[in-house]
Design goal:
The complex is a heterodimer.
Chain A: H1 3-34, H2 41-59, H3 67-84, H4 94-117, E1 132-135, E2 138-141, H5 142-164, H6 166-176, H7 178-183, H8 188-212, H9 221-235, H10 240-261, H11 263-266, H12 269-280
Antiparallel strand pairs in A: 1-2
Helix pairs in contact in A: 1-5, 1-8, 1-9, 1-10, 2-4, 2-8, 2-9, 3-8, 5-6, 5-8, 6-8, 9-10, 9-12
Chain B: H1 2-44, H2 47-53, E1 56-62, H3 69-88, E2 97-103, H4 108-120, E3 126-127, H5 133-145, E4 150-152, E5 168-170, H6 181-189, E6 198-204, H7 207-222, E7 226-233, H8 241-250, E8 254-258, H9 262-273, E9 280-283, H10 291-296, E10 304-307, H11 318-329, H12 335-354, H13 361-373, E11 376-378, E12 381-383, E13 396-401, E14 404-409
Parallel strand pairs in B: 1-2, 1-3, 4-5, 6-7, 6-8, 8-9
Antiparallel strand pairs in B: 10-13, 11-12, 13-14
Helix pairs in contact in B: 3-11, 3-12, 4-5, 6-7, 8-9, 12-13
The chains are: A mainly alpha, B alpha/beta.
Chain lengths: ~290, ~425
Amino acid sequence: MSGSLILQSVVLGVLLGGLYALLAAGLTLYFGVMRVVMIAHSAFLILAAYLAWYFTSQTGLDPLFSLIITVPLFFVAGVVMQRLLISRLRPATLTMMSVLLTFSIALVIEGMLGFIFSGTQRRIQLPYSGTSFEVFGANIAVVKLIAFVLAAASLLALYLIMKRTRFGQALRATIQHPEAARLVGVNTDRVAGYGFGLGLATAAVGGTALALDSTIYPSLHWHWIGPLMAIIVVGGLGSIPGAAIAAMVLGIGQALLQLPLGTTWAQTIFYVALFATLMLRPQGFFGGRLAQRF
Amino acid sequence: MIGHERREGRGHRVGGAWKRGSSAVVAGVAALTLAGCLSSGSAGGGGGDSDEDGPITIGISLPLTGDFSEPGKGVQRGYEAWAAYVNENGGLLGREVELKILDDQSNADRVASDYEKLINQDGVDLVFGPFSTRLVVPAAQVAQDYGFLFVEPAGAAEEIFTQGFDNLFYAAPAVAQDHYDYLADYIEQMPEAERPKTAAYAAMDDPFAQGTAYGLKDRLEEMGVETVVDEVYPPNTTDFSSIANKIADSDADILVGGTQYQDAVNLIVAVRQLGYQPRMAAFSTAPTNPEFPEAIGAQTEGIISPTGYTPEASWETNAEFVEFYTEMHGTPPNEDEANAWTTGQVVAAAVEAVECADASPECQQSLIDWLRENEVQTVVGPLSWDEAGRPQGAHLIQQYVDGEIKIVLPEEAAEADFIAEKPAW
């Protein structure tokens, strides 16, 4: 196994890990804010990818411009979904029932995509889809770099919102102690709605990034939800930095393991990590009390 | 008490068995007598002549509803077009051809009882096969039990040919392993110095996709082409960057993909991102998909793919088939229709050669024997079979030449010259 092969794998792993990090950040946010297990997160991801593909095939513009439409759209959809559906679930059984509810939403999205766009595999044809440049002997594909930069920028934006804005403070207060937050005058219902919208907005960015470099089809989301769920458990449910770090570690790990093990076995890293975490540190590596420190 | 009861019971059972046996004998005698009457009746009363002049009935069961209804209907269109064509051109042995098509609802139990019914009750003269491996196996078993010739249009999987059927013939150019034979032949006759030295294989974990890639792998390894990458990936894989990384790192001369569709597209983009330029690149299935050039863009040039049928193929009867079919249905035929038509051609060739078409074991056996020994000209090329019914041909090799997919091998069927040195993608 040559050094250049390993270097290239690390580069690919970092680029892949960045995308995983963004997607997992949204997923863990829902759980942190309202203890919701959002199975439909990856379905919204694929929906955003389809919207980007449709946008490009209709207008001929770069799919990145579709973000101008999809990000606000998904934010509003998230708020509406939280206010109309999730908030009606009984708090005592919220986590469990949210699995059923969002599972059905995922099925509805998949069915609608299949109905409207058919099951045909779609791909955005970009003039730069195969373009790459070389850094220290490793090739970095332009589309993968764009996806990585999008993910990094979104994570940074998320961080700044959480840390520097009043809304972010209210959101963190809601995550840490909803009752106390209500006592000091935070409208936790509204904040939870916006938090949900924020999570879905990351799906819009992630979906567009995904569509740049992958064929898409309606049932693709089942392929994503498993690894993403594993990442947020390993990272610690509710912890955004935990999710980002776990995503990066597992992404690089997957890319490296593919060298000796092949594709079939390398994908088990997510589940091996999941089982190991549940056995050794069930709260996740950044979970429990640490999850609230963001 | 108990012993007595048991003895009594046994005695009773013996009595019952004897009674059943005797009634079976009676029924058998009656049936024989009846059969004798019937056959003497038809032979005596000039019925032999009417049988000779009446239509040849062909029994078929197809999945017209259920899982395989789409390809099943394609096969039905092909069979019906073939029958219409034969009847317009004077029939078979001067007799009309009549199809009797039942719907097996894509159900393997149903397909077996369908063929039982066709052979026993409806008294068909010949049978044609159904669609798909799952249905071909039980149907072929019934045909085998009755000594019928069984030519089938679909079912390329190896398991069909390992069941010990001696009446089965697959009416298509090649089983999966042989799809690339023309390409392998071409590489074999290249001067040693110009042949590819190293090869990279990536195949989906699927018997058909792997079959195509490994068929070529076996041939290339025999020629001394070194295998430098051999990767298998699960069908749901969408991220091919790591496989591409290994392939690019090996810098293999020829890249072979045992692919379906999206996997080929993603793999090609991924290796391009890593700057890998093979001298030859071959993928199963995907490149013949009309979506493929849309997804890959201008970089399709020189990409190779085997194909079982194309309306453009120059086999002698193909142009007539395409014209007849297009007139009947408004669109050119695809592979399902072509394989159904081929089935008709194969059986017809045997019937014309041995000059019989009836359900008698002698006639069916002579049809089977004739097909074992002979080659048949069909719309998918000349076909001949081994003892298990595997067709001995190969798929046509297509390649993107000037932005369009064209037949390049074998030379006698080629529409364009083979590009041995693939342009950069």
